[in-house]
Amino acid sequence: MHLNAWISSLTLAAAIAAVAVHYYRLYVRNRHQLTATQSEINDLNAQLTACRAQGLRASSEYAALVSGCGAGVLLLDGAGNIVEASPSAAKTLSASELHLKGKSLLHATLSPDLDECLEIARSQREIRRCEFRTPGAVNTLSVTIVPVGSTEQPCRCVVIVNDVTELRRLETMRRDFVANVSHELRTPLTSIRAMAETLQDGALNDATVADRFLGIISAEAQRLTRISEDLLVLSHAESRPTELSPVDLSLMVDQIAQRFQKQAANSGIQLLAETEPGLNVSGSADQLEQVLINLIDNAIKYTPEGGRVVVRAQAQIGSARVCVTDTGIGIMNQDLPRIFERFYRVDKARSRESGGTGLGLAIVKHIVESHGGCVNVESEFNRGSTFIVTIPLT
Ligand code: ADP
After folding, report:
1. Do both 232 and 275 map to the same domain?
2. Most confidently modeled of 51-55, 65-69, 83-87, 264-268?
3. Confidence class for position 8, pLDDT limits 50, 70, 90
4. Measured in angstroms, how far is the CA atom of residue 169 from the centroid of ligand 1?
């Protein structure tokens, strides 16, 4: 080979080697970059998976929260239409979740007051609360409207709906009860005060007047005692869970009827007990005695001389049925639905005269129902009444 050719070959080989080295270096550098990029991609993928899992967890936590909480939850879009409704919201608004979707709040609730409240919440972006009655005033619903975000346009809202019908009913009952108790206590107290003042003003010197006034004071004081005792019995029946023990109702009916024989005889009334043996129930003996005492006492109180009271106890389809029947004054149809209310009396003067407090039947109803039973009345004005108590047999 010529020297020149040899040199050219050598130069070419060197050039090729230089190029190869250059590309090798390039490859090594890029491979490092590629590996770094790949690991960045892996990191991003891991973050994405974590975010997705977090998102899924948050959305399942949100779903559990919405379906698990007692309140109904609605989500309104920017136009004020329902886009999500929880099962309890649907139940409270007496509609299906599907039926609610797409409707405006006004359309779903038919309450212009609530719609106005929503408009204020949306325009002022503040939490608003309001209460409204459903059509026909069947239920009372308490609503809280919460705008979502502080700047979002148009404004979406979360609406929380609570049925407060029972709560409001109990509040009214409590208010009425306090008013009734005050009234019932005020009457005898006023009478006692007036008599005492008259005695202080000189009536004490007149033995006959003094004796009469002291008699009235004593009677009114006894009335106060009876009212407070009945209030105590009622409150115990309400607040204490019934302590259950086996009770032989047949034996109890016989014994209580026996206890009332003297009182019935004094009023010229015949009192009979007809009991089927072996009526065993589970309950509080004291409370069940109170039921029988109140019913038999009423039957004697509201039956004129020469009348009859019969107490029957028998088994009937898994229950003990106790009927207290009298041939007394009876109760008019219009009064029947109210006689189990606290302090309701058909004839106030007559009830007062016979020592009534107006709480006896309320106590009966409460005790019987807390024993899983029920009490009913059938009556014919001027002919007599039957009170029927049913309690499950053990
Ligand atoms: P009270 O202490 O006035 O008897 P209750 O709660 O026991 O109160 O009874 C409520 C009202 O129901 C009585 O005032 C009376 O008007 C009526 N009532 C209860 N039992 C009888 C009955 N056996 N016959 C007629 N009316 C009755």
Report:
1. no
2. 264-268
3. confident
4. 25
Strands of the sheet containing 128-133, edge to edge, are 82-85, 72-76, 157-163, 140-147, 128-133
State pTM to two decimals: 0.71
Binding site membership of 220 for ligand 1 (Cβ less than 6 Å): no
Q: State if residue 326 touches ligand 1 by the CB under 6 angstroms criterion.
A: yes
User: How many distinct structural domains can be found in the chain?
Assistant: 3
Q: Does residue 307's CB lie within 6 angstroms of at least one atom of ligand 1? A: no
Same domain, 174 and 272: no
239 pLDDT above the threshold of 80? no
Nearest C-alpha to atom 13 of ligand 1 is from which residue? 345
Tell me the C-alpha distance between 332 and 337, whole Å.
10
Domain that holds residue 119: 68-163
Q: Is the CB of 297 under 6 A from ligand 1?
A: no
Q: Which atom of ligand 1 is nearest to the CA of 362?
A: 6
Cα separation, 81 vs 49, whole angstroms: 34
Report d(CA 247, CA 62) in Å as an integer: 51
pLDDT band at 339 (very low <50, low <70, confident <90, very high): very high
Is 360 exposed, middle or buried (CB count within 10 Å of its CB: 0-12, 13-18, 19+)?
Answer: buried
Q: Measured from the CB, is residue 132 less than 6 Å from ligand 1?
A: no
The phi, psi pair for 151, rounded to 5°, reads -125, -15
Query: How far is Cα 251 from Cα 339, in angstroms, rounded to an integer?
Result: 28
| SS3 assignment for 31-69 | HHHHHHHHHHHHHHHHHHHHHHHHHHHHHHHHHHHHHHC
pLDDT digits (tens, 9 = 90+) for 295-329: 999 999 999 999 999 999 999 999 999 999 999 99
Tell me what percent of the residues of the chain surpass a pLDDT of 70: 98
> CATH number, domain at 175?
1.10.287.130
